[in-house]
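F.,

This is the one I mentioned.
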């Protein structure tokens, strides 16, 4: 996509990220500001934004430990969905995990979110288990994983 750039998050843009998150996850619990900033401080390369003509249109957040990575969240503005932006964000995040020597990536996705499940499966993730009551509202989640070659 023309004019698309994937960049490291700038904390000055936190409110834009929170707005995208609130719109993407309507009626769902969103992450507190403090948590997002803490994740960014631990591993800045894991917090990425997608920009088109300097407008932030999406983001993804990941964290890592010595052996594995976790995709915490991804969201793209509604009007920019289905244009490959989410895929580009995840591909760049996976590249950053790989540079750190991470071999296995995990994520959780709501059991009923078929669109997201299909998205992750198209990126090579596999469902490994159902986690009951994963979310604070009692919703279940699938734990998914992908090995990095």
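My design for it:
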């Amino acid at each position: 996509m023309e004019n698309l750039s994937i960049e490291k998050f700038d904390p000055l843009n936190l409110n834009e990220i929170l707005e995208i998150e609130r719109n993407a996850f309507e009626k769902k619990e969103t992450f507190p500001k403090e948590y997002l900033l803490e994740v960014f401080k631990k591993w800045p390369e894991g917090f990425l934004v997608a920009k088109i003509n300097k407008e932030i249109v999406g983001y993804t957040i990941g964290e890592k430990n010595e052996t594995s990575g976790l995709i915490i969240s991804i969201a793209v503005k509604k009007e920019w969905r289905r244009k490959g932006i989410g895929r580009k964000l995840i591909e760049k995040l996976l590249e950053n995990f790989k540079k750190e020597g991470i071999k296995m990536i995990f994520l959780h996705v709501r059991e009923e979110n078929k669109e997201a499940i299909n998205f992750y499966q198209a990126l090579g993730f596999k469902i490994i288990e159902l986690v009951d009551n994963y979310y604070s509202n009692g919703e279940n989640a699938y734990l998914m994983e992908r090995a990095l070659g």
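The CA atoms of residues 18 and 32 lie 9 Å apart.

Talk soon.
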